[in-house]
User: Fold MIP family channel protein from Phocaeicola vulgatus CL09T03C04.
Amino acid sequence: MKKYIAEMLGTMVLVLMGCGTAVSLSCTSSEPNLASTVIGTALAFGLSVVAMAYTVGGISGCHINPAITLGCLLSGRMNGKDAAMYILFQVIGAFIGSTILWTLTSNSGLEGTGANACQEGVSMTGALLAEIVFTFIFVLVVLGTTDEKKGAGNFAGLAIGLSLVLIHLACIRYTGTSVNPARSIAPAFFQGGEALNQLWIFIIGPFVGAALSAGVWKIFADKKN
Assistant:
């Protein structure tokens, strides 16, 4: 149970710190282009991953993202039971983080829970494509940097966190950046409306991107190639 609880706590911190920063800086669909809000939100998500990677990485591997878990499953790094439990506890952790954030915002005059949605002028097709592409890149970085033989060793957590910062900088204008179904499910539940109606984009997109990255990494890791 230790690794499942680690995933729950790690995802809680990611959602609370990342989405909490987005709310505090008003990085919402109505103000998606302010440089300070975009950079601040991107750093919050990336630094949360770095912090948790070096806190619980030795216990669970610090997936804190169902897309990463799917990528690890499809690339043969974990079994189905562990993958299912990881995803369950990640979603639970996201709900805990969102509950805390919702409680704080409800008593402070702030609005929203940092939920994802198509940004102004972006179609659902465009948003889905963005989530597939950027999740593909992110999970590929994770699989590559954590590979036992080809990876970055102790620097993997830093590389993954910095790549998430970069992905947020590139993707926020399209979807608010999810690349993580758990991070989207819980905030959408509390925010409702458009966020809940478009939630399918932020589940299907990241899972498709993760599956593609697992396929590519299996080719890279194949000793016969």
